[in-house]
Each structure stands twice: as structure tokens, then as C-alpha cells.
Amino acid sequence: MILYPAIDLKDGNAVRLVHGDMEKETVFNENPAAQALEFVNAGCEWLHLVDLNGAFAGEPVNAAPVEEILKQTKVPAQLGGGIRDMATIERWIDKGLARVILGTVAVENPDLVREAAKEFPGKVAVGIDARNGKVATKGWAEETDVMVTDLAKSFEDAGVAAIIYTDINRDGAMQGPNVEATAALANAVSIPVIASGGVSSLDDLKALKSCGAPLNGAISGRALYDGAIDLKEALALFKG
């Protein structure tokens, strides 16, 4: 499994939110590129980046720090937040991004996901953010009636590289991930699933690793910044 350290960008800083609430932020680093280098130097092989302002604005807002991270680190990175058209997808991939994450647009314009996955094989992931089994969009501000598994299955033959599944109620709350729902999704589709939201201890990572589903990896943010998870131990666990 792959450990994806999360760098959430808001107003140019690396922050964490609780339950996706823009008013409840903790700034962890005013230099996101330095934070990225810290993760890479510790042995991380991927980076998970989120443009929080972009998710709400519907277009990239924190482009400068993302570009700086891509420039300074030599590991693949995936980015979500505000990527809602082909031109933006193309621009990011041209700048060296390994994978774009399409969230809101996967619900509102699924054809764009299919087109992008065809145009850029292996470089398009779908971000599915859920509250009580239903998909939420626009930076989690809007809830839909779309069921998580239905949305995931609709991209089964599209060539999507991964599905990043976030349980909003767990995100940033340090309560542990929704292992059951994540495993159920991973077992329901052939697309690799990455777990996100609520990872707060090494035990959580162990639970995901042994959940009986073929997970691609897990994303962790606050727990790494707080020191609740020792990065070296987590990397060793996933490699083992």
C-alpha cells in the first residue's frame, strides 16, 4: 500500500480543516514546498495535494504553491480542488502533475472524466467525498442523492486510475477512518481505492491494511502533522 501524506492548501499555507469547515483551520506550515520536501526526505513516494480555496471557487487558486512543490520534489503528486475543465487538467499535467483528482465534476459532468481518462491514461483519479453513504460536492458544501458505490461503478470502464474515497464525518476529526465503507467500496469496484479521512493512528493504518479489500493506499494529514502517526513507522507498515 502507498501512504499519501496530505498537504491541504488554503491562502498559500499548508493547513488542516475539521470536517471540511473553512472556518476551522490549523495552519501547519506557511511554506508548503518545505513541508512537501520534509515528507519526501522521510521516504514518502507520493504526495496528495488539495487546493481548498479552489474547491470552493471552482477554479485553481493555490497554483503558485503547487507549482513550487512540483518544482522542488521529485516524487509523483496528485492534486484535487477546483479542477473542472479539460484546459485545467491539461495545464496541470503539462506542469508535471502525476494525477488530477476530479470530484464535483465527476457528479456534474461525468463525460469530462471519461474524456480526460482517455486523453491522459493513468493520470485521472475520481475523488468521492461522502456523508452517510451519499456523495457531497463543491468543497462538501452541497449534498447529492447519488450513492457512493453507484458513482464509482459508473466509471468502471472509463480507465480511471484511482478512486479517492473520503468520509467527510471523519475528516480531520482524528476519530479513525470508516474502514467498513472503504472496504465495501474497494470490493465493489475494480478501480484501485485510496482511503481518506480520519486516519489518526498507526492502528487505523493497520486496520485499513488488513480490511480484506485490495486498497491502493491511504491518505493522512493531521495525524502526521500532530505526530500522532510516526511517518517512518507508517511507511514501514505499508511496505511490509
Automatic annotation (TrEMBL):
Alphabetical list of InterPro entries matching this protein: Aldolase_TIM, His_biosynth, HisA/PriA, HisA_bact_arch, Isoase_HisA-like, RibuloseP-bd_barrel
Reactions accelerated catalytically: 1-(5-phospho-beta-D-ribosyl)-5-[(5-phospho-beta-D-ribosylamino)methylideneamino]imidazole-4-carboxamide = 5-[(5-phospho-1-deoxy-D-ribulos-1-ylimino)methylamino]-1-(5-phospho-beta-D-ribosyl)imidazole-4-carboxamide
Gene Ontology CC: cytoplasm
Pfam families reported for this sequence: His_biosynth (PF00977)
Group of enzyme by EC: isomerase
A GO term, aspect molecular function: 1-(5-phosphoribosyl)-5-[(5-phosphoribosylamino)methylideneamino]imidazole-4-carboxamide isomerase activity
Family statement: Belongs to the HisA/HisF family.
Protein name as annotated: 1-(5-phosphoribosyl)-5-[(5-phosphoribosylamino)methylideneamino] imidazole-4-carboxamide isomerase
Source organism of the structure: Shimia aestuarii
